[in-house]
Predict the 3D structure of the following.
Amino acid sequence: DAELGVDASTGLRIEPRLVVTVTVQKGVVSLGATDARLSFIEGTGVEDRRVVVDASVAALNEALGVVTYACENCELGSDEITVEVDDGGFSGLGGRLTAAATVEVSIVRR
């Protein structure tokens, strides 16, 4: 049995990576970091309606530590920011684990 988080051929530690999807319906979101530690699968992390990023837990914590929402020319009301996380099966026995959460955003005039 290979030890979880260690490359069997080299013995080097493998840093866990997650795939995170952030979506909104009306506006756009920008992540707090968009540097080279993040691999963007969809979007750029700046003013996206949907962004999908693959990165280490540390890099994702920094990127998601501040998420900015903007909605120009939107009607007053609400929107939702949905965040989905997929560990790709890296977390251990039992296969792929996923989680999702939604935050409601009130759209107001500035």
About this structure: The CA atoms of residues 88 and 94 lie 11 Å apart.
